[in-house]
Design goal:
Blueprint lengths: L3 E2 L17 H11 L1 E5 L1 H9 L4 E7 L7 H11 L5 E4 L1 H8 L7 E6 L6 H5 L6 E5 L5 H13 L4 E4 L9 H6 L9 E3 L7 H6 L3 E5 L6 E2 L9 E5 L8 H6 L2 E4 L11 H11 L2
Parallel strand pairs: 1-4, 3-4, 6-7, 6-11, 7-8, 9-11, 9-12, 10-12
Antiparallel strand pairs: 2-5, 3-5
Helix pairs in contact: 2-3, 6-10
Length: about 270
């Protein structure tokens, strides 16, 4: 297929890729415009495996031959005539705002959001993770990777939670965000009622003195594990609405773990 050589960072055809380091801008633009960014060959392959459709590719000249098979696959997934933009490292940096070391970027069509009731009502779905207002994309991506690795079934994110399809979250998740079903739960904590309607016990991971140790907890058939913000933990409303509060037994004078690490420990304990 013909490659499109780009020499001007302000080329209007590349609007999907501009300002990628501006988190506030991209977090607003991407959902509104129905796109997300997949960074690196492995992540792009996982997106294609999930049935997602590319809008275009952007890569440095030196990656064209090593990634020829991926270019062909992306073109086929797009239905042919996929724009493949090729530029020098300096031009790519001028477009995106960062040095690209992972081969390629793909602008992807964002899939339609899943409906909450449909996601929760799937037979055999036993473990759901709820992310309350976690704003760090690295943490969101790492938690989703733990969900995929440790056998949980779905992720729910509150309205103020970071976008799981933001470029950094996707990259940190190693593309597992494409295989883990997720959607927004709003309002929250009012959404606890929806979890109850589908038979989930809602467990809040908290540092409360009266929380049940994971060593002693007997997980039910359907469990929703709620994780809170990096700084303040879960809101009072969520703690009040939860059926049980859980804590990770700690030692060494350490009172808590990073939320992504805590998610992995808790998911292992309730697997």
């Amino acid at each position: 297929m013909p490659l499109i050589a780009v020499t001007d960072p302000d080329d209007p055809r590349l609007v999907d890729y501009t300002g990628l380091t501006d988190v506030a801008l991209r977090s607003r633009r991407e959902p509104e415009e129905g796109l997300y960014m997949a960074e690196s060959a492995e992540v792009i392959r996982r997106a294609l495996d999930a049935g997602h459709r590319p809008r275009s590719l952007l890569m440095e000249e030196r990656w064209v031959d090593p990634m020829a098979d991926l270019i062909v696959r992306c073109d086929a997934a797009a239905g042919g005539d996929l724009p493949v933009y090729v530029a020098t490292p300096d031009v790519v940096h001028g477009i995106t705002g960062f040095r690209m070391h992972r081969g390629a970027l793909a602008a992807m069509h964002r899939p339609a959001p899943k409906q909450l009731d449909a996601l929760l009502g799937v037979p055999g779905r036993r473990r759901v993770v709820v992310l309350e207002d976690i704003v760090d994309h690295t943490n969101v991506g790492a938690i989703i990777r733990s969900v995929a690795a440790l056998g949980a079934d779905a992720v729910l994110v509150t309205r103020r939670c970071a976008d799981p399809l933001y470029r950094r979250a996707v990259r940190v998740s190693m593309g597992t965000v494409f295989q883990v079903p997720w959607t927004r739960i709003d309002p929250w904590p009012g959404g606890v009622a929806s979890l109850h309607e589908h038979g989930y016990l809602v467990a809040a991971l908290a540092l409360d003195d009266d929380a049940v140790s994971l060593d002693e907890f007997q997980p039910p058939d359907r469990l929703a594990l709620v994780l809170g913000t990096e700084g303040h933990g879960l809101s009072a409303g969520t703690l009040s609405a939860a059926d049980v509060r859980l804590r990770i037994p700690m030692s060494g004078g350490v009172d808590s773990l990073n939320v992504a690490a805590a998610s992995a420990v808790a998911l292992w304990a309730v697997r």
